[in-house]
Design brief:
The chain is of the alpha/beta class and 203 residues long. The chain is 47% helix and 14% strand. A five-stranded mixed β-sheet has the order 2-1-3-4-5.
């Protein structure tokens, strides 16, 4: 499935998710196991956050075998995440990669707090995540062009998604080559915990 068709499939799935959960309704997704034991053929790769409120399969109303999901706090790009994306694109021929950020992200909040407060309060392991988010967030804090903390957090989340989109290409010759040849697309998106809507960053 090409990237444009895969993107439309995600958009339709998110619409079903929103409609299916309206007014407290229960969402039904496919949990079929038939036909998946011979291998997988995911139509999209999702690099998302570990936040328990943002499970990609539910957000996009997809079932088993549909999505290749990589979850890490702050949807950061590190070697293991890059390798996972490379694996999916090379071995399964998946043509769409989505970096999915979200509102109320703990990693973004921790980064902002670190830049505006005391970074020594973080454990070394959490600091390793914050260190990867900081290059995206620091310019926003320094410019001081935000209305309030909520606006700052939203700008920071978006900048971090865009940094991860760029990082996947800049730090992987494999992914860069696939993008340059038009064989894959890497796009950013943000999920609103408040509304359930996924907004894709499309030019």
């Amino acid at each position: 499935m090409n990237a444009d068709k895969a993107l439309q499939k995600l958009i339709r799935g998110n619409r079903r998710y929103i409609e299916g959960t309206a007014d407290g309704a229960e969402l039904t997704i496919s949990t079929r196991r038939q036909g998946i034991d011979d291998g997988q053929n995911p139509f999209a790769v999702i690099l998302g956050c570990s936040d328990s409120r943002v499970p990609a399969e539910l957000v996009f109303n997809r079932g088993l075998g549909d999505l290749f999901v990589i979850r890490v706090a702050g949807n950061i790009v590190a070697p293991s995440q890059i390798g996972s994306v490379e694996f999916a694109c090379q071995h399964f021929g998946t043509q769409l990669v989505v970096v999915l950020g979200h509102s109320h992200c703990g990693a973004i909040n921790a980064t902002v707090d670190s830049l505006m407060g005391d970074p020594d309060q973080l454990s070394p392991n959490v600091a390793s995540i914050v260190d990867r988010v900081t290059p995206a967030v620091h310019p926003i804090v320094k410019r001081n062009q935000f209305k309030d903390r909520e606006d700052l957090i939203h700008q920071a989340m978006r900048a971090n998604v865009e940094q991860s989109v760029n990082g996947l290409q800049m730090r992987s010759r494999i992914l860069r080559g696939l993008v340059d040849s038009g064989r894959i697309k890497i796009v950013g998106a943000e999920y609103s915990i408040e509304t359930g809507v996924v907004d894709f960053y499309l030019d």
